[in-house]
Task: structure prediction
Amino acid sequence: MVRVDDSGDITKCWLDTDEISRLAEAAARNDWERELAIQLMARCGLRASEVAYPGDAELRYSDDADGWLLEVRGKNTKGGDPTVRDAWMPDPVEANVRRFARERDRATSEAWVQASTSSIRRWVREAAAHVAEADPQADRWRAVSSHDLRRSWATHHLVERQVDVRTMMAIGGWSDYSAIEPYLAEPTEARIGDAMRG
Result:
């Protein structure tokens, strides 16, 4: 794992893209729907509580963005009623959710993932436990939570890809800098090397 912080009350894990793929593959062994849930959190930045909302009706291609945008109704980090934002969806995730919707005969108005927030969180724990069975860092995998997927997504884009904070706030649903600041983790060794060689 890129990093684990167990200094506080909650262990925080940051997964790299290969580890996220391993987690999604482990989830897919139980059900394709579980894989989609992990992809929506780890590749699109959705919170576990947001995963059961979107379906085909909320997905659209933007010519201006030259990519897929997904309407998400989610947490208002200032409090109050949920907010609506457009999250970015990578092409491979779009292809997977469309194929899933066709094969599972989901109506356009139906959500792709039809599970409670607690079930989605449990799916992540179960997939991580499955990966832990064959990994020398098993204890670290057993600490992985659904929020670690969003954390990993945000940190990857903010630190490794250097996506500007305002863009991340817009697509990730953070209403102010203080809400996104915890995701501005220290750069990885790879990022330090790239920055200092450049």
Summary: The chain has a mean pLDDT of 89. The longest helix spans residues 117-132. The two ends are 25 Å apart (CA to CA). The CA atoms of residues 42 and 149 lie 5 Å apart.
